[in-house]
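My main concern about presentation is that the manuscript never shows what a single data entry looks like. The format is easy to grasp once an entry is in front of the reader. For illustration, here is how one protein appears when written out as sequence plus structure tokens:
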Amino acid sequence: METRIANAVSATDEALAVLSRGGLVALPTETVYGLAADASNGAAVARIFEAKGRPRFNPLIAHVSDMDMARRMAAFDPLSEKLAAAFWPGPLTIVLPLLSGAPVHDLVTAGLDTIALRMPRGFASGLIARLGRPIAAPSANSSGRISSTTAQAVANDLGGKVELIVDGGQTPVGVESTIVKVDSGRVYLLRPGGASAEDIERIAGMPLTREHSGKVQAPGMLLSHYAPNAHMRLSVSRLEPGEALLAFGPTRVENTAHASAMLNLSPSGDLRQAAANLFEYMRQLDASGASVIAVEPVPLEGLGEAINDRLKRAAAPRNGV
């Protein structure tokens, strides 16, 4: 398949045509690039799994353009309504009970009785409104690998597997959406992301619960995920010879003069900047040929929780190693 890259300024009609005939469109959101298909078209959704090499038991996020569309798909409790009002459109996904007759194929929910919903900003929102139906749009990358924050990163990974890539520049948030689920009056954090836990807790009026059953209830919950080819060594205090360094902040760990390559997520220690740079810098260090990427400590507060979550999953054992 030939892959075309089109500028977001003029790509809506072409993207709409591709989605309407059951094709795949890689498109920018405020978080990362998404690999989009018509969520009501089973054959189209299956193409997402095929292009990504994604396990079928891992559910997808359904993206909507407004609350009317969201309410046709899921049952909202008052607390979930409150969270949606505060964070949508934006980088928060809410897992909700799936309504009977919702315009979404079973492949999107992976057979669960819940659905993960998000309302994005920008190009994606306008496209969904034109389509008139939700789109399924996981991150536009091979399953388990580094998420894409630029159109070129999508092309390098999925070129030939997707019909159209919409180029909207680098995504501003840089990590995927936060995923929460309200159950029995508590708000469960299923995946940290672009909306900070502290902001969610302020709106919810309660602390988030981080315990969950361990089963996959939402995207991004697999242990090994966002993985480069190189091995990752986290929260290092000293760099070993030949390692690449993913740095953070103004001060360096020991032995950085021997780094085979180095990129700093944020020289000033700004977690928002670090989140925006995370996947692209991981990708660049991986391309440097280093067998190990060492990562300096990143604070856990705010967006640091999401950054550390992605780093932990990138470093998790995979392929039996």
